[in-house]
Design a protein that fits this description.
This protein is α/β, with parallel strands linked by helices. Helix content is about 25%, strand content about 25%. The strands form 5 sheets. Strands 9-8-10-11-6-12-13-14-15 form a 9-stranded mixed sheet, sandwiched between helices. A 7-stranded mixed sheet has the order 18-19-17-16-20-23-24. Strands 2-1-3 form a 3-stranded antiparallel sheet, with no helix packed on it. It starts with a strand and ends with a helix. About 40% of the residues are buried.
């Protein structure tokens, strides 16, 4: 018999140690080591793959199938790729199981009340239909839904609430990955859903389900199954209190696509965000609304994020940002008030905290707006997180507006990056941002001067190009 080896493994990053440690030397997590028993077994060989010169490989788009939920298809890059493995993470109760149950119902064509939006959905990114790849709208036949947490009766209750009833959705209450793969090989479904990966384990390891070794090995087996059979596999993953998917980051390296389902339980809106995608662009988002009948698509998020926007109020402005290939208009609010303490507070929600401090320093140095005795609070309405520097001009404008108690014209849109010397730099996809603003009903746009010089044609907006912070403050009429 092979000797059983005992190791201590960090549950945050996967670092292994022969003895227990209080602090992980790799990631710095405290009290994260747990004992795991490992019995070395020879790896199974699947045979050597055929050697192929790069010049002989036929290129072409991957084979895709449209699910039927356009917001979901968008974040996947234009549809579901055969043989791909998709990881969906999110807080407990955020709607991951509901989203996938609605998706598999669309796949088999059984959902009676279709997921719909208030307006026509925007077009998906273009994909070639020639060669080996392309997009097909044909309905797939059978989906295997593996539940390791809920009983079939609980899933049936959710399906009834969503008006889903189909013989083509096959439920399997199982947690052993070998049994799951055997069932999938026998059934040959069009897609497999694992709910959740933290409950699945392999009999080759003696550690408990949910441990680093079990998650890694189970995900690897499912990945090999997906690639050999060309059957797409969805994995639902729990997240830790820090917001990362439970288990080491190696799980995110194994899969092809990583999606995060974000949202506040106090609000009905949910955002499905792409963090990694080997078959499409990253940072795409899909917007949904949680209702009694399930998740409903929001086809025009710009109107959603500005639906309750106050007019003629100081500290409020609208910026144009890009999420992947989609332009979004969001409201940015700032509150500047005198501090009662020796150290003024700086708080930001939805934008980078260090970026806000940098822009405050630029205002004090280049525009002579002294904020040393002021508390500054920045918030992006709607729970959206903006990472691109094109929001710099909106941050500066809203801070100055609140500081001087003078509102900005509500029909004005802003975007642009601000440098340390106070200059305003051009950003990418400026014309797409302006077209979205004109569609919503804005009349004026304050943009970087270089972006204004590159525009072609009349977009129906009064375009004002600015070159530095002083020009921005002057043109927003504060």
């Amino acid at each position: 018999m092979s000797k059983i080896k005992t190791v201590f493994q960090c549950q945050a990053c996967g670092y292994s140690s022969p003895k227990w440690l209080g602090k992980c030397p790799d990631c710095g997590a405290w009290n994260s080591f747990s004992e795991e028993k490992q019995s070395p077994k020879p790896l199974k060989s699947f045979g050597m793959s055929e050697l192929q010169p790069l010049s002989k490989i036929v290129g072409g788009r991957e084979k895709r199938t449209l699910i039927g939920i356009q917001e979901f298809d968008r974040v996947l890059g234009g549809g579901l790729v055969n043989g791909s493995i998709i990881l969906i993470g999110g807080d407990p109760g955020i709607g991951k199981s509901t989203l996938l149950l609605q998706a598999v119902a669309k796949i088999v064509g059984s959902q009676q009340s279709a997921v719909s939006g208030q307006q026509s959905n925007p077009p998906l990114p273009p994909f070639s239909k020639g060669g080996r790849g392309g997009i097909t709208n044909s309905k797939l036949q059978t989906v295997l839904y593996v539940s390791g947490e809920e009983s079939p009766e609980q899933i049936k209750l959710r399906a009834e609430r969503l008006s889903i009833d189909s013989d083509n959705i096959i439920l399997l209450p199982e947690t052993l990955v070998e049994n799951i793969i055997n069932a999938a090989n026998d059934l040959k479904p069009s897609a497999v859903v694992i709910d959740s990966i933290q409950t699945v384990y392999t009999e080759e390891l003696t550690s408990a389900p949910g441990s680093v070794g079990q998650i890694r090995e189970s995900a690897a087996k499912l990945m090999f199954f997906a690639k050999r059979s060309e059957i797409p596999v969805f994995l639902i993953g729990h997240v830790t209190k820090e917001g990362a998917i439970a288990g080491p980051r190696v799980l995110e390296h194994i899969v092809d696509t990583v999606l995060y389902f974000e949202g506040d339980r106090g609000h009905p809106y949910r955002i499905l965000r792409t963090m990694k995608n080997r078959f499409g662009s990253t940072n795409e988002i899909g917007v949904f609304e949680m209702t009694d009948e399930g998740l409903m698509e929001i086809s025009n998020p710009s109107e959603l994020f500005m639906s309750e926007r106050p007019l003629n109020v100081s500290g409020s402005t609208v910026i144009a940002t890009m999420e992947g290939t989609r332009p979004l208009l969001v409201e940015m609010q700032a509150l500047v008030s005198p501090t009662t303490f020796g150290m003024p507070r700086r708080t930001s929600m939805g934008v980078d905290f260090n970026r806000v401090n940098l822009l405050i320093a630029v205002l004090e140095k280049k525009a002579e707006i002294h904020l040393g005795g002021m508390d500054v609070f920045i918030n992006i309405v709607g729970g959206l997180k903006i990472l691109e520097p094109a929001a710099d001009m909106g941050i500066i404008s809203s801070i100055v507006s609140s500081f001087r108690e003078v509102p900005i014209d509500p029909k004005t849109i802003l975007f642009g990056e601000v440098g340390l010397s106070g200059e305003v730099r051009a950003v990418a996809q400026g014309e797409a941002r302006l077209k979205e603003a004109a569609k919503i009903g804005f009349k004026k746009a304050i943009i970087p001067k270089n972006n204004a010089e590159r525009l072609k044609g009349d977009l129906g907006l009064t375009i004002i190009g600015v070159k530095d912070v002083e020009d921005v403050i002057e043109n927003i009429r504060i």
